[in-house]
Design goal:
Radius of gyration: 15 Å
Order of helices and strands: EEHEEEEHEE
Helix content: 10-25%
Strand content: 35-45%
Number of strands: 8
Number of helices: 2
Structural class: mainly beta
Oligomer: single chain
Strand order of the largest sheet: 1-6-8-7-3-4-2-5
Distance between the termini: 17 Å
CATH architecture: Alpha-Beta Barrel
Length: 159
């Protein structure tokens, strides 16, 4: 549960053993959606996208939702939670709601290069295999956090 009252910080400390959490409904977000993305496009999409979204009043950490097979092409949604919908939005930005419901949660601490191994560990579980949607919440800010302290929460929806 979110003890810190910051949207999308689902645990104050890293979750080192996979846990089941209930993500609440109604977390308003500003988002950018991209279709047919290849893995090598991610750095440019994140850099440009979060630059646009950061000016729209985020109140919690950024996230990415991956729909499809990351080994091929997939759809990508990146966003931030917001307190209220901004008055005017750039044309490519939409107001959305963060996915809610029961999810598996596991934290990865360290360099983003270690994320594939963390995902392999999580998706090796029978209740997390063959998922078409996975979510990363970037709990710490990579622009100010030392690489070895970066925390990314990994989520696999169960419902």
């Amino acid at each position: 549960m979110n003890d810190s009252m910051t949207p999308l910080v689902l645990s104050p400390e890293p979750v080192t053993t996979v846990a089941t959490v209930e993500v609440p409904t109604g977390i308003a977000c500003v988002e950018l959606h991209h279709t047919a993305v290849a893995i090598d496009q991610l750095p440019a999409l994140f850099d440009a996208g979060y630059g646009v979204l950061a000016g729209l009043g985020p109140i919690g950490p950024g996230y990415a939702i991956y729909d499809g097979d990351p080994g091929s092409t997939f759809d990508l949604t990146i966003g931030f939670p917001v307190a209220t919908s901004p008055g005017s939005l750039p044309a490519e930005v939409r107001v959305g709601e963060f996915p809610s419901g029961r999810m598996l949660l596991h934290s990865h601490v360290g360099d983003f290069e270690g994320l594939p191994g963390a995902w392999d560990e999580l998706t090796a579980r029978p209740d997390a295999r063959d998922r078409d949607r996975v979510i990363e919440i970037y709990v710490t800010d990579p622009s100010v956090t030392p690489v070895e302290e970066l925390r990314t929460d990994l989520l696999v929806p169960l419902t």
